[in-house]
Amino acid sequence: MPNFNCRVTGVLLNDSDEVLIIKRNKNYLNSDRSDNEFYGWEFCGGGIEHNESPEDAIIREYQEEVGLEISVIDIFNARTGIRSGSPLLNISYICKYISGEVRLTNEHLEYKWVKLADLASYDMGCHVNKDRDRFFKNYPDKIYD
Asked: Which one, of 80, 52, 57, lies nearest residue 10 by Cα?
């Protein structure tokens, strides 16, 4: 029986209605990456660990990948697919920036805080584009007060 991957993604907004995007480093070695994996701009996210809630996973991923404290606002998308030949469930959340300075690991090369109006101009790869487009469809206006 194949492994089933459960992953989370978080669209992080700050008080200026900007979204954090990070650019993946194609030289970062990780055994679960395939040769045809997209290396470009993406939202922070990753795998859900055993006995971890999806909400706790996205909070942990933001801390590990970029060093930021966040809060989870709402789920906005769940989709299935294939990752490294195994079934995938990806759950996407809207998150709010709380505190911290962005600190990248060697997994990512750079970051940008992008205005919501400009986010659609970034090609984030077919899978992340699906999350981005669903985000715009579900939340065309300001997300939180």
From this structure: 57
Cα–Cα distance measured from residue 93 to residue 76, given in angstroms and rounded to the nearest whole number: 6
> Per-residue pLDDT tens for 103-125?
999 989 999 999 988 888 887 87
Tell me the CATH number at 117: 3.90.79.10
- pTM here? 0.85
Residue 144 falls inside a structural domain: no
Give the total number of structural domains in the chain: 1
Task: Give the residue from 111, 133, 109, 110 showing the smallest Cα distance to 121.
Answer: 133
Tell me: the pLDDT tens digits for 48-79? 999 999 999 999 999 999 999 999 999 999 99
Residue 33 dihedral angles phi and psi, to the nearest 5°: -90, 135
Whose CA is closest to 59, among 14, 97, 4?
97
Contacts of 84 by beta carbon, 8 Å cutoff, 6+ apart: 5, 32, 33, 34
Radius of gyration of the chain (CA): 14
120 CB neighbour count, 10 Å cutoff: 13
